[in-house]
């Protein structure tokens, strides 16, 4: 593990210097009366005995213990007698202050370098940090030339600037906070579904359907010289999935509540701030539905539950965004959680848009799709809280959407959830469960053969059902107030860009 050129600095009055020897002593381990380790959840990830994560160390639970901490240097300050470092390992926004004798100073201890510090945890005399690590040994595991390193000590770089370095931006406070929030939000959605009786389904990434019928498909074929034959690898055209919905619908013939959470792909030639070619979608399908309200209830509960979980479990990281990246956004998030989400129909939405004095770039005639500018206006109009828009024109929706059979203004039982700052966050619908109506629509589109298996679902124990998909990156934009979707995903993919 130790790199060539790595260097160890130690002081003679300290504890044992050999790392292996040190680990064998298991300092810092707490044992309960039944021999069970008394570790907090956070410290369960602490690696070998005596080795702590930074969050484990700053928790203050192991004061006086001899420990080893590994991480990357976030600041260095050398005084006459002492050297101060801040070390971060991604386990929390907080870094651990390391205090060492200036004998341990070394030019290789720079901002960005990787270190392993062995020492004793002490109560810190400073109010803003409960704990510091009094170092007996500092080992520089990996050097970092601060002149070439694109991030500079004490500078708050913009999200736009750090986006240029997808291989390095996780080293910044803002992006490491984002990644912890993203990870916790993933847990939050899974917890919501688990607590509410949903079964998780791994829907395929490669599929032969175009669920949305919008033609935004990436085709999948092997590459290389062996692939010159005309025939498709799978014998049929195959694509990266645009949605797991149809596979969830298969499962909803046997499970009354299912969900999936995975990557989805759209060949959208868009440079917008809310579209990606690869994004994560949370999708749910509910059987035995009575009305769209069965879906809007799940959507709203899920949004609240996930957001409350993230605010509670990632308070410091979320604060970093709400204070420094998108100041004032906290108020918007709190307002979203206070009120029930209102519902308006598409026809009401069109009325609101037509009555407004705004000059929209896109038409607002009945039958036109709502554009981002319309969605954002509607959200503001409804008090800057999430709003459901229901019953869209039948012709705007894919073949699976349930016909409301309301002839004059012909609509489908579809719903979008629009949220502040982003616009559309979720899209869903009741599915057409009536065999004759579904067959007629598929025939009209020339898709009857392609979807004969889908018609089978309506032949054998068909039930009223419906579901929705939530764009996970848009969700993060919404709760953090981040303007550009490329700043909430580790490695953004969009047209003309596939870095790394
Ligand atoms: O509204 P969409 O297209 O709905 C479906 O795909 C349904 N089959 C889902 C279902 O009912 N199971 O997509 C759902 C959500 C959108 O509301 C949006 O938040 C997000 O996915 N989304 C995108 N996010 C980022 N980049 C893109 N290109 C996106 N396209 C859709």
Structural class: alpha+beta
Ligand inventory reads: 4-amino-1,4-dioxobutan-2-aminium adenosine-5'-monophosphate
Q: What is the percentage of strand-forming residues?
A: 15-25%
Mean pLDDT: 90
Written account of the structure:
- With 500 residues, the chain is an alpha+beta fold.
- The chain is 27% helix and 23% strand.
- It has 13 helices and 17 strands.
- It has helices spanning 19-24, 54-58, 159-162, 173-195, 245-251, 293-313, 315-325, 329-338, 346-355, 372-381, 435-444, 452-459, 472-480; strands spanning 7-10, 51-52, 66-78, 82-88, 96-101, 114-123, 131-142, 199-200, 206-207, 239-240, 257-265, 278-287, 343-345, 387-393, 411-419, 423-430, 465-471.
- The strands form 3 sheets. An 8-stranded mixed sheet has the order 8-11-12-17-16-15-14-13, with helices on both faces. The protein has a 5-stranded mixed barrel with strand order 3-4-5-7-6.
- It starts with 6 loop residues before the first strand and ends in a 20-residue tail after the last helix.
- The relative contact order is 0.10.
- The model is unreliable at 1-5 and 12-47 (pLDDT under 50).
- 4-amino-1,4-dioxobutan-2-aminium adenosine-5'-monophosphate binds at residues 211-212, 243, 245, 266, 268, 275-276, 279, 281, 283, 424-428, 467-469, 471, 473-474.
């Amino acid at each position: 593990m130790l790199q060539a050129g790595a260097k160890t600095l130690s002081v003679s009055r300290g504890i044992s210097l050999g790392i292996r020897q040190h680990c064998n002593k298991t300092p810092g381990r707490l044992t309960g009366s039944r021999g069970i380790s008394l570790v907090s959840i956070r410290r369960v990830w602490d690696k070998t005995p005596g080795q702590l994560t930074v969050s484990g160390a700053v928790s203050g639970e192991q004061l006086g213990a001899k420990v080893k901490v590994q991480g990357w240097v976030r600041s260095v300050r050398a005084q006459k007698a002492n050297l101060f470092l801040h070390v971060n390992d991604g386990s929390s926004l907080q870094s651990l202050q390391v205090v060492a004798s200036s004998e341990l100073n070394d030019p290789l201890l720079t901002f960005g370098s990787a270190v392993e510090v062995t020492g004793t945890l002490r109560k810190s005399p400073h109010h803003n940090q409960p704990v510091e690590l009094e170092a007996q040994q500092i080992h520089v595991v990996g050097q970092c030339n601060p002149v070439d390193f694109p991030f500079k000590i004490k500078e708050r770089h913009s999200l736009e600037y750090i986006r240029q370095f997808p291989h390095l931006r996780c080293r910044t406070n803002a992006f490491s906070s984002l990644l912890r929030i993203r990870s916790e939000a993933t847990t939050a959605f899974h917890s919501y579904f688990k607590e509410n009786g949903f079964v998780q389904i791994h829907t395929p990434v490669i599929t032969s359907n175009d669920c949305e019928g919008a033609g935004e498909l990436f085709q999948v074929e092997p590459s290389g010289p062996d692939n010159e034959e005309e025939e498709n690898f799978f014998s049929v055209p195959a694509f990266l999935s645009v949605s797991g919905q149809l596979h969830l619908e298969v499962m909803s013939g046997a499970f009354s509540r299912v969900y999936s959470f995975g990557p989805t792909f759209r060949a959208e030639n868009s440079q917008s701030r809310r579209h990606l070619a690869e994004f994560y979608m949370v999708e749910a399908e509910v059987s035995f539905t009575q009305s769209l309200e069965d879906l809007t209830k799940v959507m709203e509960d899920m949004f609240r539950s996930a957001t409350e979980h993230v605010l509670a479990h990632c308070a410091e990281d979320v604060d970093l965004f709400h204070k420094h990246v998108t100041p004032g956004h906290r108020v918007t998030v709190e307002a979203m959680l206070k009120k029930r989400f209102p519902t308006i129909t598409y026809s009401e939405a069109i009325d609101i848009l037509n009555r407004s004095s705004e000059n929209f770039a896109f038409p607002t005639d009945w039958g036109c799709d709502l554009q981002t500018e319309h969605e954002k206006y509607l959200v503001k109009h409804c008090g800057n809280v999430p709003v459901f828009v229901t019953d869209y024109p039948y012709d705007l929706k894919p073949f699976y959407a349930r016909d409301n059979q309301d002839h004059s203004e012909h609509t489908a039982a579809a719903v979008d959830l629009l949220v502040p700052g982003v616009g559309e966050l979720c899209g869903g619908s009741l599915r057409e469960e009536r065999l004759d109506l579904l067959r007629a629509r598929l025939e009209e589109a020339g898709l009857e053969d392609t979807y004969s298996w889908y018609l089978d679902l309506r032949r054998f124990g068909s039930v009223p059902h419906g579901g929705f998909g939530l764009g996970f990156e848009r969700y993060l934009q919404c709760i953090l107030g981040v303007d550009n979707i490329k700043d909430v995903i580790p490695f953004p993919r969009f047209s003309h860009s596939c870095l790394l």
